[in-house]
Hints:
It is a single chain. The protein is α+β, with helices and mostly antiparallel strands. The chain has seven helices and eleven strands. The strands form three sheets. The protein has a six-stranded antiparallel β-barrel with strand order 4-5-8-7-6-9. A three-stranded parallel β-sheet has the order 1-2-3, covered by helices on one side. Helix 2 (36-47) packs across helix 3 (72-90). The structure holds pyridoxal-5'-phosphate.
Amino acid sequence: MPQAEALTRVLDLAGIDVPILMAVDTGMGREGVRSTHDAIELAGFIASQRRMGLRGIYSHEGHAYAAPPGESGVVLDQAYEKLMELRDAIDSSLSVWPGCSVTASRLAAMPGISAVRPGTYVFGDLSLTLRHNIMEWDDLAATVLTTVVDRPSSDLALLDSGSKTLSGDKTPDGISAAAYDRRQIYVSKCSEEHGWATGPDVDDLSVGERIRLVPAHICPAVNLAAAVTVVRNGQVIDVWPVSARGRVD
Ligand SMILES: Cc1ncc(COP(=O)(O)O)c(C=O)c1O
């Protein structure tokens, strides 16, 4: 409610009218109204404002990532139920826009869903492939090229990609990245500039060897890079600057 009140003041000052999507918390515990009571109250406030028009509700099912493999359907069903309940309590003609790559393709097929807003699926990562089987491994579109910089023991390789490259995000199993070539090599620990690679195939690696990694979470990995190198059929065809790098404003 304080956000809606602040927005009213900004819109009055700016002299513009805007359509509004109300955020709904479907279980992640982040932004959005928690209860039907709060949703009705906020919808009433929006309806009383001349510069706002409520068009729909939206959500982000980020907690689906932490669901055990094969069980994200439970999160999806609960989210769908809550979205429909809140929509019908306010106005059944409102549009409904959930957003999460784990649930998007299934929610898009359900009645009453107007649009889905996935982001991670554009490149894909370990969460969407190994963990939740939402994407095929061959559809992964972004990897991190890393170099083996040390082999201190037979069960460990040190890579030149740490949390400044892969980000601090891990899969729920504690993995920061895995080898794209499907060898069983996993980055199980990171410092800023280094990754600790372990796993049954790690002894294959030699100092100086370059391997491609699939990060646990591709979104912050892209955000940490100054540019991405575009490769087609093994040939570098372009370099795209990441214009939103590090931007939090
Ligand atoms: C509000 C919101 N909508 C949609 C998305 C996209 O979800 P995903 O990263 O699962 O594709 C995000 C991701 O963080 C989000 O915060």
